[in-house]
Amino acid sequence: MKRRILVIGLDGATWRVLSPLLEEGALPTLAHLVAEGSHGPLRSTVPPLSGPAWVSFLTGKNPGKHGIFDFCGLQRENGKRPALNATHLRSATVQHLVGRGGKRVGTINVPFTYPPRPVNGYVLTGMLTPRDDEASFAYPPHLIEELRQELGGYEVEADYDRFVDIQDSLPPATCRITDERGLAEEIMRVDTKRKETLIHLDREFEPDLTMLVFTSTDRVLHLFWADFEGVQAGAERWDATPGGEVMRDVLVHVDGLIGEILGALGRGCTTIIMSDHGFGPWNRIFYSNQWLVDIGLAKRLPVLRRLDGRFLVLIRKSLRDVLARLGMQVVADHLPQAMGRVGVWIPRLRDPGWSSLVRMDTVKAYSGTTGHQSFYVNRRDRERGGIVAPGAEYERVRGYLVERLKELRDPMTDAPLISRIYLKEEIYSGDALSLAPDVVVETEGGGCWMVPRYPFRPLFQDWNMGCHRPDGLVVLHGSGVKSGIEIEGARIIDLAPTILYLLGLSVPDDMDGSVLEQALEEDHLRRYPVRFERVEWSEEEQAVSEFTEEESAAIKDRLRGLGYIN
């Protein structure tokens, strides 16, 4: 009987949330896998951002080798940062390595797999797939029509826009859930379709490796973390608030879907449950680009030109408010997308950004996207429109940035805001190091997330949602896996080499991760020692395919609607 591997990604899942549900007996599938397998925390990338974390999972490498540090690329002369896609990866991925080894692979909803590349099996792309690009989210392409006929179609993402309204063009930023129950039903409907799709395609392709990611877990933890904190403190039941009930219902539903998938795939399947990062409270917003202006690393435009930028964002906000008050909430909810489509031809109406507020020829540094907790020096030899010379000037600007970061204080406690500062060479290594953010930080307790939006003051805003933490989770279960032990020190980069090893394939010798031998039976390791090989990356695989301006704008709208960028 051949060995099969099933990897289920629970985006953002953390033991902090799942352990109480396990104790209640609400997650029987996960409880079974934990009791009879190996489990523990799983360390994410630095910072723990979904884009680079999922790519590190796929490649077994740090971002300095695979080249993905953020959802967006380097800043251009107009202040915009283009959305990235799978062709920007600078490394082979586990699904392609499995195919090269003569085995079949199936991939559903894994981030950074768009556009789909040919594999020995099938791919249905995930996050960063343009919403209106129905013709190309699958490989082989005929699966789109097949799924339409057999299952009524496939949806890359639930329609969160119908239920979640994030307004952050002007302070104070707000997040409003218009219908908690409707949102839960929409999420569970799409997750059920993912399960049905996997089972259908498993019969057709019989993959040796199947990977499915549920991104819904991340979405509900972002939106309803404040509701969970009451449950965690023992002050409330899960159903005491609509948000807490949504979170519990979605997590319980996903556990049931995993059980159905395991039942359909049958015995002999080794299962890996994992997440790309953990979660914790998000208490404050720090407007990082505003701060860069305040410390002299960018200069404002003259006031009349700056008012133009403010006027454009006011148009969008005011129109939405007026429509809502007139009882036209549905129209108001779709206004950002409508203005987005207009904004393809009038970019400043879509997203005024830096260029409507600061002089681009004065920008010496800029912030990463929301939650990226990083800063880039605007280098002349790297960014298009960069102004800082490499060498001594670069070091002066970066050194000044580091010293000013050390001076930042938490407005609530007056304690230092930044708990740790990394220079890029301290945490990344590889041929893509030049693309890395130049400074990465951790805030004290992790509860203050940087948002690059330029807000016209103040620097800080109270907030009450969930944000990422470094420790996700991992569970391994099946033949050759130890039973009932807790893993220590596992990293997200360890999963790709572990998957290859369990499939009997060699591990590329340039992977940063290691096989999780502590989770595997000693007899299995003795009989099947880990083998390494040199893997060459072809020119065809290195070819980059940029999003069109319209596609990039649509992707950034989706990320903005989910709170990932500003």
From TrEMBL:
GO MF: hydrolase activity
SUPFAM superfamilies: Alkaline phosphatase-like
Stored Pfam families: Phosphodiest
InterPro entries xrefs: Alkaline_phosphatase_core_sf, Phosphodiest/P_Trfase
Transmembrane segments: none
Protein name (Swiss-Prot/TrEMBL): Phosphodiesterase
Source organism (scientific name): candidate division TA06 bacterium SM23_40
